[in-house]
Amino acid sequence: MALSTTPDRRAALKSRHREAILRAARDLVDERGGPGFGVDELAERADVARRTVFNHFASLDEVLLTLCGDALDVLIDDFVGAVAALPRGGGTRSSMFDEIAQTLRSADLPSAIVRIASILGTPVPTEDDPRGRALSEVAFARAATRLLAEVLRRNPGVDVLDAELLVGSMMNGVIVVSGYWIRDTGIDLGPAGRTAWHDLLTRLIDSVRSGYTAPS
Question: What integer pLDDT is reported at residue 49 of this predicted model?
């Protein structure tokens, strides 16, 4: 019996350490207003050894990317929730487009963008901050990969290239309009800021629609 439970105990300990590291990273980000801490401080706050951090994450950037992924999970979760009660898509370009557009409209992306800004210490990718730019792009690319997997699951007969082009266009467009939103509103989550986000998102959706939803 003892031998059979050892792997479970190790897995539970590993899970606790990982959660402790992420919790400590979230706390430090909130306290510092960005990623102003190192691995040693993170390990001390999580009450784990430095090597334990690297047992779970390849680098400090990977810790930050995981936090960004948690913020962007709202997009995938909203997609799954929004389409769960609908018939599975027919695999057409228009049905895929409509599902993703509905998700972008319903997801609280402004809050996710603000959270990512606090994690990375930069609102949007900029030439002046190559590290923040790279991390932002990776975070959105990972979210796009998850969203693509859900789209393909919903539309098993779809042309994979069509689906990947659509998801990529939408997610890259979100990064672009995020920059305009932050520039124009100063990261305003109030009514005026959300109206501005809605208008920018509508322009994105209309722009992608015009070039994507030709009859298949």
Answer: 94
At CA 25, angle to CA 66 and CA 117, rounded to 5? Answer: 65
pTM of the model: 0.78
Which of these, 200, 2, 22, 18, lies nearest to 113 by C-alpha position?
200
Looking at 47-129, list the stretches that DSSP marks H as alpha helix, in order from N- to C-terminal side: 50-56, 60-83, 93-106, 109-120
For residues 106 and 171, membership in a common domain is answered with: yes
In the numeric block, the tokens 């909203």 are attached to: 78
| pLDDT beneath 50: ranges in the chain | 1-2, 125, 216
Instruction: State whether 47 and 136 are in the same domain.
Output: no
| Confidence (pLDDT) at 47 | 94
b/e code 139-158 from CB counts within 10 Å (16+ = b): bbeebbebbbebbbebbeeb
Q: Which residues of 18-52 are buried (b: 16+ CB within 10 A; e: fewer)?
A: bebbbebbbebbeeeebbebebeebbebbebeeeb
199: containing domain: 60-212
* 150 shares its domain with 195: yes
| 52 and 113 part of one domain | no
Per-residue confidence (pLDDT) for residue 183, from 0 to 100: 85
What total of structural domains would you count in the chain?
2
**106, 208: one domain:** yes
